[in-house]
Amino acid sequence: MATNRISILVALDGADEGLKRAIASAETSLGKLAISAKAASDKASAGIARVKAGVSVISEQIITARTQLLAFLSVNWAVGKVQEIVQVADAWNMMSGRLKLATAGP
What we know:
mainly alpha, rod-shaped, 0% strand, single chain
């Protein structure tokens, strides 16, 4: 019976060494995984920063384009109003000329 106890203790001691090696290996693997995760996180952060910078540039370009479009439309509207004024003045002059002809005025 004492022999059985010794063999069980030896077996447990051997299993304990194997367990210690497995734990050490797991710790090493976990350390490598942590390093890889940190590197991936750094790369992702850099990528997100580049995307944000790109979106900011696009936003500025859209604002500039909108401002230019509004300026163009304002100028176009003003030119249209000037043309209407010229047409009304021309029509007035034509009507005035016809009235002078019809009434034989000075």
